[in-house]
């Protein structure tokens, strides 16, 4: 049996909805959007919580959920959910057949029938969940209930059997499930005859199986009409929650996305989850392309700005600590982050003011001013006197707070002194091999997790286990947990190839390394910049294979989309969009936890293609 990796320790795909509900941390604004009675597209990388959110719409999850605001969310829900878990196996067979072969069309029909059959199974499961709601579950849940007796189940089974062309031995949900199994067996047998027995099968041979012609939307509409009529709830709305769209074959992927726009039945809604990048693209002149904000509401599970993710991450950490029966606060356990901007005013009585002479921030900045000529020059040009910051205006203090992260990185990893020689000066850099204390402390640890539940659990669970025996977790232990998380994440990313030439490929991690080094160089060069280059644009000079590699890394969470407009989302095409490196990887490259100014990705890749070294240190000079 394979041992789960760090990032597989929490995977909602394999959890029962009731188990998910018992540990559900409410992302209030996101869940509120998902609960709206409209089409939704949930976008996020691996581990970002897409499946958890989709499963939380199921009646069984709503029944088990314990939260003070549960009634409020139930009141806002105006639909019953049908959860559909995608399966990559539906697409694998078709991928083995060449599109121009005689068998391709047959395999495409069989694949559609497989998907529709599993969709029908999900519909029956949804009715079963709605029928399991009891009086004692509360008034708010009763609107999702279907009061199913044996006669109604028989009528419903009989009518659905006719519409879905099922050969039922008796009228019950159990008989329907048996019929679904028989249908899958028929489909598998046709696959076997073609692939293994090499039997020649024509399209006309499929006519003996009429169920192969049932399409996705027809199956949905017949279900909704039948259930609503027999349950005497004709206006009931059903939301079909299709999870992990990206693992489906492009045919289904485009079909489901088109449904966001083309399905006009007001009793049907779509809730679809997907990764931010897909190789499947609509044609430029395709008028059926759905528009975000018009045909659906985009719900993004990544956070371009760290303050948006810290609140959710703190909720998850609090839940982990509560589960372990640890009463200490994150700040007490992990200490304060050096990246956290201290405010000059409002310190507790008796404590040294951070920007006053002798204060923590003052001392750090003063030392950098002495050691770093570029920083000293910046202070002179901006007319900033560190000795006067504590008593200066709020505007001047705010400017100093903005540069704290850059100053801390230069102080910790930048030039420690300047070596003079006949040819000019050479900057000497500190070692970058270890995880610096800059990335430890409660605020930094929460920021590094980037709002990704799987990363947070993987990073904090060992530390929480240690906290059962210690009142405070050392910086060294925190750094080791960060190193482990990064190593595990990089091992996952290493499997993604990036084309260096027509004949050679590199793992995407080499490209990320070069990008990280490029950004670090811009922070520690001779000019002190308050907004160095820390993000990139996937510009039009990138070829298709390069975009595919960047997109695959984006789907794993290596990069995070930065919207340029309010409510802008990233799904499908990533060209000309802006991204930053995940904060989880920033400790590896000694980068501040911010996104800075953008540069074009092709410009960075030019240096890689030329074999140019982007960062020179003293050790480079003496090889």
Features:
623 residues; alpha/beta; 4-stranded mixed sheet; 25 helices; disordered N terminus
First-last Cα distance: 46 Å
Average pLDDT value? 85
Main sheet attributes: strand count, strand direction, barrel closure: 5 strands, parallel
Q: Which word captures the global form? A: globular
| Strand numbers in spatial order across the main sheet | 2-3-4-1-5
Structural class: alpha/beta
Poorly predicted runs = 1-9, 417-422, 611-623
Q: What is the number of helices?
A: 25
The total strand number stands at 13
How would you portray this structure in words?
This protein is α/β, with parallel strands linked by helices. Among the domains are: 35-301, no CATH class; 496-623, no CATH class. The chain contains 25 helices and 13 strands. It has helices at 17-22, 28-34, 50-55, 59-64, 70-76, 89-95, 102-131, 150-163, 173-195, 216-230, 250-262, 306-323, 330-334, 360-371, 373-381, 394-402, 404-413, 442-448, 453-467, 475-493, 508-524, 544-556, 586-589, 601-609, 618-621, and strands at residues 40-43, 80-85, 238-243, 268-274, 297-300, 415-421, 424-429, 497-499, 505-507, 533-537, 559-562, 578-581, 597-600. Strands 2-3-4-1-5 form a five-stranded parallel beta sheet, with helices on both faces. Strands 11-12-10-13 form a four-stranded mixed beta sheet. A hairpin with a 2-residue loop joins strand 6 (415-421) and strand 7. Helix 8 runs antiparallel to helix 10 (216-230). It is globular and about 85 Å long. The two termini are 46 Å apart. The model is unreliable at 1-9, 417-422 and 611-623 (pLDDT under 50).
């Amino acid at each position: 049996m394979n041992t789960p990796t760090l990032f597989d320790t929490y995977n909602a795909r394999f959890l029962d909805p009731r188990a998910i509900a018992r540990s559900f941390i409410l992302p209030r604004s996101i869940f509120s959007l998902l609960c709206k009675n409209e089409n939704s597209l949930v976008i996020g990388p691996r581990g970002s919580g897409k499946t958890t959110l989709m499963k939380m719409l199921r009646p069984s999850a709503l029944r088990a959920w314990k939260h003070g605001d549960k009634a409020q969310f139930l009141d806002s829900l105006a639909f019953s959910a049908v959860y559909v878990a995608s399966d990559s196996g539906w697409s694998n067979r078709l991928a083995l057949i060449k599109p121009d072969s005689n068998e391709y069309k047959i395999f495409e029909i069989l694949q559609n029938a497989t998907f529709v059959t599993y969709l029908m199974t999900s519909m029956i499961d949804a009715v079963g969940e709605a029928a399991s709601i009891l009086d004692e579950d509360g008034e708010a849940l009763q609107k999702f209930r279907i009061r199913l007796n044996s006669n109604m189940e028989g009528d419903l089974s009989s009518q659905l059997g006719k519409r879905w062309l099922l050969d039922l031995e008796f009228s019950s949900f159990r008989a329907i499930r048996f019929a679904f199994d028989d249908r899958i067996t028929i489909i598998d047998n046709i696959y076997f005859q073609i692939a293994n027995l090499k039997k020649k099968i024509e399209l006309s041979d499929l006519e003996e199986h009429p169920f192969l012609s049932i399409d996705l939307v027809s199956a949905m509409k017949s279900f909704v009409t039948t259930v609503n009529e027999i349950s005497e709830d004709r206006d009931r709305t059903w939301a079909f929650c299709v999870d992990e769209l990206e693992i489906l074959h492009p045919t289904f992927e485009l079909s489901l996305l088109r449904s966001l726009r083309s399905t006009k039945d007001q009793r049907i809604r779509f809730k679809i989850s997907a990764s931010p990048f897909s190789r499947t693209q609509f044609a430029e002149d395709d008028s059926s392309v759905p528009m975000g904000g018009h045909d659906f509401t985009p719900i993004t599970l990544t956070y371009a700005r760290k303050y948006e993710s810290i609140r959710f991450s703190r909720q998850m950490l609090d839940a982990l600590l509560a589960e372990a029966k640890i009463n200490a606060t994150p700040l007490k356990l992990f200490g304060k982050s050096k990246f956290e901007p201290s405010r000059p005013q409002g310190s507790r009585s008796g404590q040294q003011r951070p920007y006053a002479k002798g204060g923590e921030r003052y001392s750090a900045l003063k030392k950098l001013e002495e050691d770093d000529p570029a920083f000293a020059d910046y202070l002179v040009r901006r007319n900033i006197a560190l000795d006067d910051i504590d008593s200066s205006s709020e505007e001047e203090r705010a400017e100093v707070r903005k540069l704290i992260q850059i100053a801390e990185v230069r102080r910790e990893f930048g030039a420690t002194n300047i070596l003079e020689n006949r040819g000019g000066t050479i900057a000497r850099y500190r070692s970058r091999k270890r995880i610096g204390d800059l990335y430890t402390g409660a605020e930094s640890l929460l920021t590094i997790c980037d709002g990704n539940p799987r990363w947070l659990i993987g990073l904090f669970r060992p530390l929480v286990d240690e906290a059962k025996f210690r009142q405070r977790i050392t910086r060294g232990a925190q750094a080791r947990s960060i190193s482990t998380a990064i190593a595990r994440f990089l091992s996952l990313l290493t499997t993604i190839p990036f084309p260096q030439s027509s004949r050679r490929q590199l793992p995407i991690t080499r490209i990320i390394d070069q990008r990280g080094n490029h950004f670090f160089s811009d922070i520690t060069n001779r000019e002190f910049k308050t907004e160095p280059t820390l993000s990139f644009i996937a510009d039009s000079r990138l070829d298709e294979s390069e975009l595919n590699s960047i997109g695959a890394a984006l789907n794993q969470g290596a990069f995070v989309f930065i919207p340029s407009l309010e409510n802008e989302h990233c799904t499908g095409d990533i060209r000309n969009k802006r991204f930053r490196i995940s904060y989880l990887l920033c400790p590896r490259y000694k980068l501040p936890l911010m996104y800075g100014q953008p540069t074009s990705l092709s410009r960075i890749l030019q240096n890689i293609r030329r074999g140019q070294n982007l960062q020179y240190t003293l050790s480079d000079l003496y090889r």
